[in-house]
Specification:
Elements lengths: L7 H11 L40 E17 L2 E17 L8 E12 L18 E6 L5 E6 L2 H11 L19 E10 L4 E18 L2 E20 L2 E18 L4 E16 L4 E16 L1
Antiparallel strand pairs: 1-2, 1-11, 2-3, 3-4, 4-5, 6-7, 7-8, 8-9, 9-10, 10-11
Length: about 300
């Protein structure tokens, strides 16, 4: 699971750098990276066997995804600290049978709601996200392949916030997951909401053991990633370049019947955003905590 507030890091920095007003005087409590997950309990009895390979499969699920981001950056006007959070509610329908690419899948957004006191980055109108749907294929590895939005204008408007859910599901081996398995996955993706920004992730995953999640026997997948960010583009009428590195730690749950049961992750990122026209370089440290839960 990857956070949905990815490319907003650039838009927010560009907006802040373009203002002449001083930074906010309030200092929010930082969100610290999560501690390493505890050792999983012993496997429960009943349900699937430890030797069974688990794969994502057909289901209809509702999810709530909440993310809180804490940012510290050095602007020409001085140090700025910003905290903001959003919660998205959406439905995921995976239909069978699978074709040569994967299962037909649709993600439909019910609503996106900012946390109390949060100013939405770039003043994006979150109302246009209501009813927005993405249709594509879910590959055996958990990639949402070639998502096509139901409304391209609405998708473009909220893309700095939600992207296209390509990394919503955990990355899995094509043959499925068995208890105790470990695997490494390398993915490079382009985020084009603000320009041409490339994110390369190297993810190491471990199927740690069985747990009960929402009353369902599920395998806990512990994840540790490192990633690099590189690229540039144009925003607010001026060119920018961005580069940085980060780490992510978290865990996901997949039920024995192939349903994704949610998880948590914490990203810690260091970025440098350069604005050549202003001869300005903005160092930034960002911590984002994302939680996905199954909704009734």
């Amino acid at each position: 699971m990857r956070p949905f507030l990815v490319v907003a890091v650039v838009t927010l920095a560009m907006a802040c750098a373009s203002r002449s007003a001083p930074p906010p005087t309030t200092t929010p409590t930082p969100v610290n990276p999560a501690a390493p997950p505890p050792a999983p309990p012993a496997p429960a009895t009943g349900g699937g066997r430890a030797t069974d390979a688990i794969r994502l499969g057909p289901s209809t699920m509702r999810y709530a995804m909440h993310q809180v981001v804490n940012i510290e950056q050095e602007l020409p006007t001085g140090r700025q600290q910003v905290t903001y959070g959003l919660q998205a509610f959406f439905r995921v329908t995976i239909n069978g049978p699978a074709d040569s690419v994967g299962y037909p899948m649709t993600i439909s957004i019910d609503s996106i709601i900012p946390d109390s006191g949060t100013t939405v980055p770039m003043n994006v109108d979150l109302g246009v996200a209501r009813g927005l749907a993405f249709v594509g294929r879910l590959t055996p590895q958990g990639d949402f392949h070639n998502p096509v939005p139901s409304d391209s204008n609405a998708a473009q408007a909220v893309s700095p916030i939600v992207g296209s859910f390509r990394n919503f599901f955990p990355r899995l081996p094509a043959a499925g997951v068995t208890q105790g398995a470990t695997w490494t996955d390398t993915v490079t993706m382009n985020e084009r909401a603000t320009g041409n920004v490339s994110v390369k992730s190297i993810t190491r995953s471990h199927a740690a053991g069985w747990e009960e999640r929402n009353g369902t026997r599920s395998v806990r997948i512990e994840v540790a990633s490192s990633f690099t960010i590189q690229g540039g583009g144009e925003q607010l009428g001026q060119h920018f370049d961005v580069a940085g590195t980060g780490v992510r730690n978290g865990f996901d749950y997949v039920a024995v019947d192939g349903r994704y049961m949610g998880g948590e992750s914490t990203d810690s990122t260091k970025l440098t955003i350069s604005l050549p026209v202003q001869s300005t370089t903005i160092p930034r440290t960002q911590v984002a905590k994302t939680t996905v839960t199954v909704s009734p």
